[in-house]
Amino acid sequence: MIVSQRKIRVLVVDDSAVARAFLTKGLAEAPNIEVVGYAINALDAKTKIKRLQPDVMTLDVEMPGTNGIDFLRQLLPENPLPVILVSSLNLRVFEALAAGAVDFVRKPDGEESRESFLRALAQKSTVASCAKVSPCRRSTIQPTAAAAPAPINLGRSGEKVDLDHTIIGLGASTGGTEATLEVLKRLPADIPGMVIVQHMPPGFTGMYAQRLNKLCAMEVREAKNGDEIHRGLALVAPADLQARVVRMGSRYTLSCQPGEKVSGHRPSVDALFTSMAETVKCHMVGIIMTGMGRDGASGLLEMRKAGAYTIGQDKDSCVVYGMPGVAQEIGAVMIQASCDNIASVLMQHLKTGK
Predict the structure, then answer these.
(1) Collapsing DSSP states into helix, strand and coil, what is residue 211?
(2) How do the pLDDT tens digits run along the chain, 354 residues long?
(3) CB of 336 closer than 8 Å to CB of 314
């Protein structure tokens, strides 16, 4: 993915004068960013957006009057501007992502330096400037017994997949929180065991897993070290730990341990996929979805070489066609599909083996 050489024009929106000063000064120090102005609330931001024409907007989720979520729902259908959320540890960030925000950063606290926060915000702003904005995504409702996807019924073709001995790995980054949800909510409760790596700040993976668990038919939870991977369960790799599949006889568990970053990330999609390629002796599927960079591409290629069925999200449905684009280029992807169709492609494979 090629990022423009010109400076990225950023508008900062925050009701706190202290936060605005910190953000505008910090972002202005990034060599590729120009802070074109700031706004103190949603009404002010609407005026400034029209006048300043920013490339990216940073937005505080919690603001008096019109909050960040309602603001996004009003703004993006008419003006699909890439938005990076600046949020405390709050479940509402996922509502804002569902409303069309591209990504988010966690406000710095005692465990995170202001310097690392500003680096992350500048990097995400750079990525967002090239992202595809999808405003007002479809509402998601909790499936009921009648609305839940039907259980998997194997076809009568000669080649079948042993669903009790199949492991699915899924990796995503920018745009992936909602894209992964779109896939999982179309899958049945008895899906083979899944492991999900979504690049996310510490504290948010647990809340994200809880959200998926409420909206999807299968059980979804944040993984703990040593969790067994089994049918009907999707495990979300915890932030700041590397997640790798471990074989114990005929059983498979997930190791979640501290360690060096792999491909620039912890958890890393490459770390998960490579562990699957090296360890898993039963059938496996690898899915790579929207995200900046190339994390997961090499690991997915190793999975394909080891006999896995591999799926890549297509360019048109990606917020950022980085990770799946690289995977496609290096031959790691067997089939590409849109975000809305990945689940059906996966189900067809599980039913027929093709």
Answers:
(1) helix
(2) 444 467 899 999 998 999 999 999 999 999 999 999 999 988 899 999 999 999 999 998 887 777 788 888 988 888 889 999 988 767 788 988 998 899 998 888 765 688 888 988 999 999 898 888 876 554 444 444 445 677 776 544 445 778 899 999 999 999 999 999 999 999 999 999 999 999 998 889 999 999 999 999 999 999 999 999 999 999 999 999 999 999 998 899 999 999 999 999 999 999 999 999 999 999 999 999 999 999 999 999 999 999 999 999 999 999 999 999 999 999 999 999 999 999 999 999 999 988
(3) yes
Between the CA of residue 172 and those of 61, 142, 326, what are the distances in Å?
23, 23, 13
Of 243, 250, 248, nearest to 205 (Cα)?
243
56-60 β-sheet, strand order: 33-39, 8-13, 56-60, 83-87, 103-106
Q: Give the CB-side neighbour count of residue 7, counting CA atoms within 13 A.
A: 13
Tell me the HSE value of 194 on the side-chain side, using a 13 A CA sphere.
Answer: 28
Give SS3 for 338.
coil
With 0-12 / 13-18 / 19 or more C-beta atoms within 10 angstroms meaning exposed / middle / buried, residue 177 is buried
Question: Domains in the chain, start-ordered, CATH in brackets?
Answer: 8-128 (3.40.50.2300), 163-352 (3.40.50.180)
What is the torsion angle, in degrees rounded to the nearest 10, for the CA atoms of residue 123, residue 124, residue 127 and residue 129? -110
The set of catalytic residues is 173, 199, 295
Phi and psi for 142 in degrees, rounded to 5?
-70, 130
Both tokens of 187, joined, read 């899958």
Give the CA-trace dihedral at 289, 294, 299, 304, to 10 degrees: 60
Pairwise CA distance, residues 351 & 354, whole Å: 8
Task: Give me the residue label for tokens 């496609």.
Answer: 328
CA–CA gap between residue 220 and residue 5 (Å, rounded): 41
CA distances from 323 to 109, 185, 258, 292 (A): 30, 22, 23, 6
